[in-house]
Amino acid sequence: MKSSTRKVLYFIALLLIVPNKAAAMHIMEGFLPLEWALFWWGVTLPFLILGFRSIRKTILENPETKMILGLSGAFAFVLSALKIPSVTGSSSHPTGVGLGTVLYGPFAMTIIGTIVLLFQALLLAHGGITTLGANAFSMAVIGPVVTYLVYKGAIKIGWSLSMAVFLATVLGGISTYVMTSLQLALAFPSEVGGILASFTKFAGIFAVTQIPLAISEGLLTVIVMNFLRKYNLEELKSLRVLSKEANEL
Q: pTM higher than 0.85 for the full model?
């Protein structure tokens, strides 16, 4: 392992041992009605299959990037554990999926994000098994897909790597909570105004905390990406992150 990558992993490990009070992460265990919990599991499973294939292909073609894959998972674990209480049965926090999405693509991040959520449910009592499908769909499917599309679009129009990563991470994080708001609205429509009124209420509450968190996460992701570009240049080239149009920061 390169010393630079080891330093980043040590820093993340240090953050993990800092105690914090447990609270609901995303949508907590048992909060969704059973039919909605099963529905979100169903729509997430195809993306998990695509994710397994994506990671397998990348590792076979570029085995030297395994440590960066681990770094992406640790980064997502730490950031998504930094939470702020929000809507009853849920919370706001960074998602941490932007880094891995830029490096490995959205489907690989579906696997990483789901594993992160599973570990948090089992080890930290954040989230839950019944709501894992819903939480994974918002953070590990929608978030990475939006992040990837924004990143590729920004690069295509000539934005620098740093600006593309920042914008993609911010919008990807916000999209996660837009999806969470929709999930809660579908499960708990308002008596007056139905799903739309409920969605507006949930999204409005989330926006107070999530927009500043998304901006902070975007800045941090750019810092880590710049670090990787400085010390892990060959790995980034192997992953095709540093294309000609994205070579300047």
A: no
Residue 138 Cα distances to 26, 67, 179, 203, angstroms: 9, 26, 5, 14
Can you read off the two tokens belonging to residue 191? 């008596």
Q: Answer for the pair 102, 225: CB distance below 8 angstroms, yes or no.
A: yes
φ/ψ region of 94 (left if φ > 0, alpha if ψ in -120 to 50, else beta) reads: beta
Token pair in block for residue 87: 């809507």
Distance from C-alpha of 133 to C-alpha of 124, rounded to nearest angstrom: 18
End-to-end Cα separation, the chain, in angstroms: 25
Tokens of 94: 């960074």
> pLDDT digits over 134-192, tens only?
999 999 999 999 999 999 999 999 999 999 999 999 999 999 989 999 999 999 999 88
Tokens matching residue 222: 């750019």
Structure token digits, residue 7: 């330093």
Phi-psi region of 7 (alpha: psi -120 to 50; beta: other; left: phi over 0): alpha
Cα within 13 Å of Cα(198), Cβ side: 16
Q: Which residue has the tokens 């941490």?
A: 96
Strand partners, 85: 91
DSSP bridge pairs for 238: none
